[in-house]
Amino acid sequence: MAPVKVFGPAMSTNVARVLLCLEEVGAEYEVVDIDFKAMEHKSPEHLVRNPFGQIPAFQDGDLLLFESRAIAKYVLRKYKKNEVDLLREGNLKEAAMVDVWTEVDAHTYNPAISPIVYECLINPLMRGLPTNQTVVDESLEKLKKVLEVYEARLSQHEYLAGDFVSFADLNHFPYTFYFMATPHMVPKKP
Amino acid sequence: MAPVKVFGPAMSTNVARVLLCLEEVGAEYEVVDIDFKAMEHKSPEHLVRNPFGQIPAFQDGDLLLFESRAIAKYVLRKYKKNEVDLLREGNLKEAAMVDVWTEVDAHTYNPAISPIVYECLINPLMRGLPTNQTVVDESLEKLKKVLEVYEARLSQHEYLAGDFVSFADLNHFPYTFYFMATPHMVPKKP
Predict the structure, then answer these.
(1) pTM for this prediction
(2) What is the pLDDT of residue A188?
(3) Ranges for the GST N-terminal domain (chains A, B) (predicted)?
(4) Distance of CA A17 to CAs A24, A31, A32, A89, Å?
(5) CA distance, residue A188 to nearest chain B CA (Å)
């Protein structure tokens, strides 16, 4: 069986979300790079994969998908095993809690953390732009409040959706990984 | 069996998403209004339902949920019938396409259409603020491009996820409903 294909630079957070899920389920896959500088994401070939000209895109035989969370869920469903069931769709309440904290990542955690990653890493290192410290400070304030809710949640449960690791946790990895490379990552005192 | 409860003003687009799904599956439900002017969304009672102090929140017996898409999917799964299966989770490819276009609504359609609704309706009518025409014009440009992709998609398929109505379509209703009350709704010539 030909491996599934993921289109897009692996260092993009949205591509990383898909790769993380492929790794978790142990699926065979191939990453096909998309060259943004050459505008390859707006090429006719790529627009067939994603009509909005964004990454990632995904191919499994004749099935083409886009939108990282949709691709990730397809991967988790397709390669689900008893020991790796990250969506818990067989259990109504557990699946709902996975969805709740997946949505919190998309609509609350990411909007707070991503501007810090952009301002401290992506803009200065990849775009030659200065860091806007006002944006960083406002986002740090926002993130702090968001993390207070996470702290309370994780003092009651081992993982975000409950006492089982899930897609909800995985979703937080890509931006958190980059955040840890900014000067605002303060390690806990030992 | 006690009806499930939805907390939040029914006119909110995110609350409407949940109500729409409850109506589609014919579930019995009760809407409990949350008074924003009285800061009820930040009250201790409501923070138990949604620790971020937002609406909607949802209660089904001892289960408390928040995040409108997570609640909506719980409702669609719980009350799924053969004739009303809006998530198609029994079919890997169909479920993936429902997810793709649900994500497109959240990350592409809503960001283009919602500023128009805010500037033309919510700000002037509910907040006494003037319409920022620059924001409206920019969003209309964005929306036009987004709708070209929709036009292409819907010329190939009856509905967004394929030739079946799904959660993906429903998600577009709340903002589209309000958009149709703005001066920018241009009806098709007969």
Answers:
(1) 0.95
(2) 60
(3) 2-83
(4) 11, 13, 15, 19
(5) 25
